[in-house]
User: Which sequence fits this backbone?
């Protein structure tokens, strides 16, 4: 009971309830203040960059032409990572929730969750030392046989440090988030819906296609958008793996690659001074807004389908 009744009949809240309610309000207010503080800082420090010249913008004439290639590289790497991670995450989630025996499913679930605890630096080292060199023969084969496709036009990178390699690393980092959310959504599918599909003669896959996937559609979308937000903001792994030159290109396997906003800031902020530093902060503001919009959209989708929502 959260209230007690006094002799006059009016409810009186317990002291513990009042303390807990005020603490939770303070915690929520602290998050809002911190978020607003970050936005104000980025805005104030980024405004001087609008008057920056080519010397401070790496040869670009204005801030827009400076940030646009970084936005392109950020979105390209994140979208490719999502295209790789989401189907794999759905397969793993369905295997855990509907196919694998309970003991095996629990173990696989723990292993997938542990992927989220691996530092991004470790992913970056793995991408440089293992994944990149292993993909060099694949990139050369793609450049030799599919050079008519803009994505594989070549020439292939000799180190494997390409935007595609960085996207694969990002996909592995996004995988635990998407898997964890979709796994819980699939596990909450009404049992009666599944049994009704099976009783009508549906196979296991038909039951999943007709009962599980439609039920979890909103959860899949929200998980993918949350994973997209994670991929957009990743810094160290991309900075370590990607051999970036800041260009706009659809070629995924060459040594000339677009950079991302986060990686560009991480690699150049320490040496930047004056207006050049303001330009980096302004690009950070752009990334902040993109990430905020993605996460806000994901939260809106989740809230729309919460129990009791209309």
Assistant:
């Amino acid at each position: 009971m959260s209230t007690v009744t006094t002799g006059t009949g009016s409810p009186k809240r317990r002291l513990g309830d009042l303390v807990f309610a005020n603490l939770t309000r303070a915690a929520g207010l602290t998050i809002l203040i911190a978020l607003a503080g970050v936005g104000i800082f980025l805005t104030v420090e980024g405004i001087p960059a609008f008057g920056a010249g080519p010397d401070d913008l790496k040869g670009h004439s204005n801030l827009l032409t400076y940030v646009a290639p970084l936005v392109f590289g950020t979105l390209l790497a994140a979208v490719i990572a999502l295209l790789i991670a989401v189907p794999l995450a759905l397969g793993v989630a369905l295997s855990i929730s509907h196919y694998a025996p309970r003991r095996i499913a629990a173990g696989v679930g723990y292993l997938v969750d542990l992927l989220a605890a691996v530092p991004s630096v470790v992913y970056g080292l793995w991408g440089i030392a293992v994944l990149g060199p292993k993909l060099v023969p694949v990139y050369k084969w793609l450049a030799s046989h599919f050079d008519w496709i803009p994505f594989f036009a070549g020439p292939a990178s000799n180190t494997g440090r390409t935007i595609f390699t960085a996207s694969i690393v990002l996909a592995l980092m996004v995988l635990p988030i998407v898997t964890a959310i979709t796994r819980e959504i699939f596990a909450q599918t009404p049992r009666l819906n599944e049994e009704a599909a099976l009783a009508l003669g549906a196979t296991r896959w038909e039951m999943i296609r007709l009962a599980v996937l439609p039920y979890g559609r909103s959860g899949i979308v929200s998980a993918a958008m949350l994973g997209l937000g994670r991929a957009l903001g990743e810094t160290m792994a991309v900075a370590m793996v990607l051999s970036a030159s800041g260009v706009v290109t659809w070629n995924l396997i060459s040594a000339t690659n677009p950079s991302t906003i986060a990686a560009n800031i991480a690699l150049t902020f320490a040496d930047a001074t004056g207006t050049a530093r303001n330009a980096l902060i302004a690009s950070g503001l752009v990334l902040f807004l993109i990430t905020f919009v993605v996460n806000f959209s994901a939260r809106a989708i989740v809230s729309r389908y919460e129990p009791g929502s209309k």
The chain has a mean pLDDT of 82.
